[in-house]
Amino acid sequence: PARHGELARPLPEVVWERLGVDRLWAHQATAIDAVRDGRSVVLATGTASGKSLCYQAPIAEAAVAPIRPGTALCVFPTKALAQDQARALFRLDLPGLVPATYDGDSSPEERTWARSKASVLLTNPEMLHSALLPHHAKWSTYLGRLQYVVIDELHMLRGIFGTHVSHLLRRLRRVCALYGADPTFVFCSATIGRPGRLATELCGLPVEEI
Q1: Exposed, middle or buried by CB within 10 Å (0-12, 13-18, 19+), for 21?
Q2: Which DSSP letter does residue 107 get?
Q3: Strands 24-25 vs 4-5: parallel, antiparallel or unpaired
Q4: Which of 28, 106, 107, 134 is deepest in the core (most CB within 10 A)?
């Protein structure tokens, strides 16, 4: 039987209406509560189980915050996945929620626009390493408000590639600290063994399994 859950505190009405769901699954409510409390999580659930909504909701809430809106960084292993998620965020059509893909296909003009306008940046590990972190001073406003970091397809971050990503995420955390931010991490994966351990080793923070 389906298991549903309720949030500890409701989302802003404008966000809830745009999400397009009547009720949350139990794992979604648990994840959203944890992420909004600043606890890093890893979601290891089956395909089409609504993992994306678990980070879309907190990201949207942060973007529409009236006093100090927060930004988000979503890292995907491929450009196609980032573009799919960008379209999903665009469809929410919320004021302040401005997604932008930042990859090898982005023109110089598009990169400049993303740096100054985007509240959600969707990219890949290579671009994070070669284009964003070396020029972090240009991203100081965005990084200073960075509230959430999403790492999708966790099961692909193994071996040497996983080692590189773990160094990148630690470097990202150091740069964020320079600008006064301490982002919460959200990892997503298909069902794998010991996802909490893998996520913790990748970012160097305690990560709750869901």
Answers
A1: exposed
A2: -
A3: antiparallel
A4: 28
Nearest in space to 48 (alpha carbons), one of 190, 203, 197: 190
- Residue 69's pLDDT band (boundaries 50, 70, 90)? very high
pLDDT at 81: 85
Positive or negative: CA dihedral 180, 120, 190, 170? negative
User: pLDDT category, 71, cuts 50, 70, 90?
Assistant: very high
Instruction: Give CA–CA dist 177/10, Å, rounded.
Output: 30
Query: Per-residue confidence at 146, pLDDT binned at 50, 70, 90?
Result: very high
Question: φ, ψ for residue 150 (rounded to 5)?
Answer: -105, 130
- Coil, helix or strand for 163? helix
Reference 42, options 144, 191, 156, 174; nearest CA is 191
Per-residue burial over 86-104, b = 16 or more CB atoms within 10 Å of its CB, e = otherwise: beebeebebeebbbbbbbe
CB 186 within 8 A of CB 34: no
Rounded CA-CA distance 155/175 in Å is 26
Q: On the CB side of 65, how many CA atoms lie within 13 Å of its CA?
A: 15
Q: Which amino acid type is present at position 190?
A: A
Of the candidates 81, 91, 175, 177, the one whose C-alpha atom is nearest the C-alpha of residue 128 is: 175
